[in-house]
């Protein structure tokens, strides 16, 4: 894992929200990982684990409380001048979760997709702008006839593809997909995921794919990070993570997914997690999972377990794994 | 369960396939890719949808027509009529309504027809000023406060709270004592607090929009400042603005009428609907028509604005959208 | 299972919803039965009419929605044209419903205990106040809420998402209804909580023998709880059959496409099939088979005439032209 292979390096990143006096929500609390050029890095976890906040902090929508993000070997904070910031905004883009609020309802699809083209003056004239938009729409499986329509006329999957076309309009290298499929129907999820995979091949994209649906994440990702209450608890290649999950939380998470196979379902016994996720407000400094973990010891209640490499490329944050 | 509708909708029963279908129909069909993303509905903007909904609301349309007619009369009747609002004629005082004087004459023999339309003109003018104040001060104040945020927002909000806290009537009456009575004074008095509600509504709406995913997407694409306000924020605030204006106008007209009625409004021979009602009230026994017609005029204007405002709210409110 | 009693029969139901942008023909001729003690899963994408069908059964159609034709028989009684007042006696006592979002379906200003006892008060007038409280605490315990006696006096916001869904289930089951309709009961929940709720539903069904209609788009959920599956597409039914028949011997191309578009968790990398295109807009539904434009086995006839229903076993049926005897090499 040579340094120059990494497109995005996240170092000890934290994002805290101060809610009031003595109330701090540690949405992301000291997360470090790197995303290699050309790969898809999957980020999974349950609601409230901070995965979306992490994505938004990496791309700069939220300021980080602590830590740093390096993009292409350079700290994000060092992209200062207007030109550098414009460069960053062209190279990093995001696809959003909710296809209903991610498109401006008062703008036509043509103008939505062309927004980045206009801002960065990528088209010389109006004809070229139109041509670029139509090419983008065709790349995501829509056509010219859709350009003059408003978002509310589209179905959820179609809107999501408009959102993808918008993100691609500035030719980015790195795209954060923030739960792009969780609001979509099953048949449409596969469509969008396949589209993202194809675009990755044709346009050399690097993805950070955030989702809570593990089966889709496994299908699209090369490596996966599992988050629990603001911490990264396990990180491995997707095959390794699913074949040999080490962290008790990952094990429970995988075991909880209902499989679309009645015979398997009848014979399966689940690891049932007791209780629910504890509140992310004013978390103590210990293993975040210790309230629901059956292996929990005194050490777990006192110290935050560090993320250690237990096998080549397989990282886990748990005191019990040696 | 049974939703009553005037036109009964009969669902198209499926066409039964005839028994003797030609054999070539059972061959594989070619799939046309344009069918895949076909959108059946006619396309139009969200505002156009609102217009269609408004058109269906008979009461609101009638009110809009009445308001237009009243406005036309208010503009042209005082110009085209043979009498002016100030000419006295002691030979024809307190005449009941007739062909010569459709609304009768007052105790100085002034033609009530001319006076009522003149008064309506003043009242509508004050309504118009209120609308413009709302639009310019209210919208800009609210938008700036929400866009800058932080300390500036906090200070701007405190200023609004102070303005709201001081009793409106006291300020107006104080102004009347310092400045000469007249339309200008009323306008200045109203401009101190008339825009506050609008500023608050616009601020709330923009704060809500700022967290929407399409605004974040625009930010990531490099849209900023003025462009953001004009392309993303204001167009999505239009319905709030229009509705608020529709409610601000009758409220301003009513305030003016109230001031004139208690005697701190316009001075004779100028007339507003409030002044006319006040005069009519004094002459109630001798000439009841002097109270009835201006009162009817103001009721008509207020009711029409209210119904039209309600209609617009129903038509433009995005929550009604499916 | 065929000798089991039919609890609910829906016959040839048509539902339309009148909106500003036109009349949405949400359900177009759907029929199905529900037997005693079984779990029927209704699967389909949004806009397939699966939710509307069940709202029509419950008399809870949105504004502008109405049943144009068809009948709903509940234990042999026709409840299609019940008034709102009559429906109120049916809801809760005979058919209960739980929804996707447990937060908006609970009253935030009332304690959880009050909401359960209210339900008992409506449908079980014979009970005394003490009996109702006792029963409510018993119910809370039954759905797996720890310390039910303390929890009885708490408000919905003091419960987590999963716990709220448990409360919803306890309210729905308070009067021991014969039928429980669960509309996407786990969609808003996390996987680990979803597993808990599904286990709870299975366990409770064994205990009180309620029939369950579960509406979902998650085929994993279907595989783990259902006995029978009804697949809907474009306001019509595409395929119905026993769980294993639908999962291992599916007949309708839409069902096939749906199964193939879920990645299999424990396998090597494979390419994922995806059904192209978007579901039809039911303001102008296609004349023929609603799935025809997206189908990879589409025949010319599919676009012209709606297909007939073919039976493959006692319970397994599919609505598709491919099984017509005139098709060359008919299956």
Characterize the structure shown.
The complex is a heterotrimer of chains A (322), B (322) and C (331). Chain A has a single domain, classed as Rossmann fold. In chain A, 34% of the residues lie in helices and 24% in strands. Chain A is built from 11 helices and 12 strands. Chain A has an 8-stranded mixed beta sheet with strand order 6-7-8-3-9-10-12-11, with helices on both faces. A 4-stranded antiparallel beta sheet of chain A has the order 2-1-4-5. In chain A, helix 4 crosses helix 5 (156-168) and helix 5 packs parallel to helix 6. Chain B has a single domain (47-76, 111-320), classed as MetI-like fold, CATH 1.10.3720. In chain B, helix 4 (112-148) runs parallel beside helix 8 and helix 12 (273-282) runs antiparallel to helix 13 (289-316). In chain C, 31% of the residues lie in helices and 24% in strands. Chain C has 331 residues and is α/β, with parallel strands linked by helices. In chain C, helix 7 (161-172) runs parallel beside helix 8. Chain C is built from 11 helices and 12 strands. Chains A and C meet through helix 5, helix 6, helix 7, helix 8 and helix 9 of A and helix 7, helix 8, helix 9, helix 10 and helix 11 of C.
Q: Which CATH first-tier class of one domain in chain C would you pick?
A: Alpha Beta
- Run of helices and strands of chain B: HHHHHHHHHHHHH
CATH topology description of chain B: MetI-like fold
The H-level CATH homologous superfamily of chain B, spelled out, is: MetI-like
Tally of strands of chain B: 0
- Fraction in beta strands of chain C: 15-25%
Largest interface: A-C, 44 and 48 residues
* Mean model confidence by pLDDT of chain C: 87
């Amino acid at each position: 894992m040579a340094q120059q292979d990494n497109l995005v390096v996240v170092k000890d990143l934290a994002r805290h929200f101060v809610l009031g006096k003595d109330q701090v929500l540690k949405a992301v609390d000291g997360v470090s990982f790197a995303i290699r050029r050309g790969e898809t890095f999957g980020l999974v976890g349950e609601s409230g684990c901070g995965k979306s906040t992490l994505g938004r902090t990496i791309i700069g929508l939220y300021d980080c409380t602590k830590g740093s993000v390096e993009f292409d070997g350079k700290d994000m904070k060092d992209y200062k001048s207007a030109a550098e910031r414009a460069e960053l905004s062209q190279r990093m883009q995001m696809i959003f979760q909710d296809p209903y609020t991610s498109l401006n309802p008062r703008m036509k699809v043509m103008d939505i997709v062309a927004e980045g083209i206009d801002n960065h003056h990528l088209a010389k004239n109006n004809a070229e702008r139109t041509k670029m938009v139509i090419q983008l729409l065709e790349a995501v499986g829509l056509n010219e006839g859709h350009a003059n329509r408003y978002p509310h006329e589209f179905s959820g999957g179609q809107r999501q593809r408009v959102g993808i076309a918008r993100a691609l309009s500035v030719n980015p290298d790195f795209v954060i997909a923030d739960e792009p499929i969780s609001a979509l129907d099953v048949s449409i999820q596969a469509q969008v995921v396949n589209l993202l995979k194809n675009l990755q091949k044709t346009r050399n994209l690097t993805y950070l794919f955030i989702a809570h649906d593990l089966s889709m994440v496994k299908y699209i990702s090369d490596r996966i990070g599992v988050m629990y209450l603001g911490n990264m608890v396990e990180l491995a290649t997707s095959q390794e993570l699913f074949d040999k999950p080490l962290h008790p939380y990952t094990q429970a998470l995988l075991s909880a997914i209902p499989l679309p196979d009645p015979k398997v379902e009848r014979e399966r016994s689940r690891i049932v997690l007791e209780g629910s996720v504890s509140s992310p407000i004013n978390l103590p400094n210990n293993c975040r999972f210790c309230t629901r973990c059956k292996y929990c010891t005194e050490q777990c209640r006192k110290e935050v377990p560090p993320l250690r490499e237990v096998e080549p490329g397989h990282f886990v944050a748990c005191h019990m794994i040696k | 369960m049974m939703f009553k509708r005037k036109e009964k909708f009969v669902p198209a029963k499926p066409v039964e396939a005839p028994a003797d279908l030609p054999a070539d129909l059972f061959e594989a069909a070619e799939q046309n890719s344009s069918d895949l993303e076909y959108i059946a509905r006619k396309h139009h903007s969200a505002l156009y949808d609102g217009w269609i909904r408004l058109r269906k609301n008979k009461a609101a349309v009638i009110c809009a027509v009445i308001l237009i007619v009243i406005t036309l009369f208010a503009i042209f009747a005082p110009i085209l009529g043979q009498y002016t609002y100030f000419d006295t004629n002691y030979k024809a005082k307190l005449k009941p309504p007739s062909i010569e004087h459709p609304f009768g004459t007052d105790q100085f023999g002034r033609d009530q027809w001319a006076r009522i339309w003149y008064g309506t003109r003043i009242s509508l003018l004050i309504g118009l000023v209120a609308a413009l104040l709302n639009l310019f001060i209210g919208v800009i104040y609210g938008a700036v406060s929400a866009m800058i945020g932080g300390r500036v927002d906090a200070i701007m909000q405190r200023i609004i709270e102070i303005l709201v806290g001081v009793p409106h009537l006291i300020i107006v009456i104080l102004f009347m004592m310092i400045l000469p009575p007249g339309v200008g004074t009323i306008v200045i008095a109203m401009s101190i607090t008339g825009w506050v509600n609008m500023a608050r509504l616009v601020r709330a709406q923009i704060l809500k929009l700022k967290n929407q995913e399409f605004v974040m997407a625009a930010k990531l694409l490099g849209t900023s400042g003025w462009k953001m306000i004009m392309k993303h924020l204001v167009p999505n605030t239009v319905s709030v603005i229009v509705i608020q204006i529709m409610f601000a106008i009758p409220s301003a007209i009513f305030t003016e009428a109230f001031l004139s009625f208690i005697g701190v409004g316009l001075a004779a021979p100028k007339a507003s609907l409030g002044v006319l009602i006040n005069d009519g009230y004094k002459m109630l026994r001798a000439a009841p028509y002097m109270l009835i017609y201006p009162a009817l005029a103001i009721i008509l204007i207020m009711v029409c604005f209210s119904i039209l405002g309600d209609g617009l709210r129903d038509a433009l409110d995005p929550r009604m959208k499916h | 299972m065929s000798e089991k009693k039919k609890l609910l029969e829906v016959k040839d139901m048509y539902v339309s919803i009148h909106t500003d942008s036109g009349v949405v023909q949400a359900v177009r001729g759907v029929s199905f039965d529900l037997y005693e003690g079984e779990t029927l899963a209704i699967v389909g994408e949004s806009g397939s009419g699966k939710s509307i069908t069940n709202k029509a059964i419950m008399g809870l159609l949105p504004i502008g929605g109405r049943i144009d034709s068809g009948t709903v028989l509940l234990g042999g009684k026709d409840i299609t044209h019940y008034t709102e007042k009559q429906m109120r006696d049916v809801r809760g006592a005979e058919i209960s419903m739980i929804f996707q979002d447990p937060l908006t379906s609970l009253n935030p200003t009332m304690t959880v205990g009050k909401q359960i006892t209210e339900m008992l008060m409506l449908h079980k007038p014979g009970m005394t106040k003490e009996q109702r409280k006792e029963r409510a605490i018993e119910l809370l315990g039954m759905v797996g809420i720890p310390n039910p006696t303390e929890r009885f006096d708490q408000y919905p916001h003091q419960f987590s998402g999963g716990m709220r869904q448990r409360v919803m289930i306890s309210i729905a089951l308070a009067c021991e209804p014969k039928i429980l309709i669960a509309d996407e009961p786990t969609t808003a929940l996390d996987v680990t909580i979803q597993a808990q709720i599904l286990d709870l539903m299975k366990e409770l069904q064994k205990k009180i023998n309620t029939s369950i209609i579960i509406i979902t788009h998650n085929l994993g959920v279907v595989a783990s709880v259902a006995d029978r599956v009804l697949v809907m597409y474009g306001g019509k039914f595409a395929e119905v059959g026993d769980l294993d028949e639908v999962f291992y011997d599916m007949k309708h191309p839409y069902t096939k496409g749906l199964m193939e578009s879920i990645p299999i968790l424990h396998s090597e990398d494979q390419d994922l099939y995806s059904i192209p295109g978007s579901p039809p807009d039911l303001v102008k539904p296609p004349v023929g088979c609603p799935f025809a434009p997206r189908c990879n086995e589409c025949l010319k006839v599919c676009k012209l005439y709606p297909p007939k229903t073919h039976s493959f076993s006692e319970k397994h049926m599919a609505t598709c032209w491919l099984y017509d005897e005139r098709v060359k090499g008919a299956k």
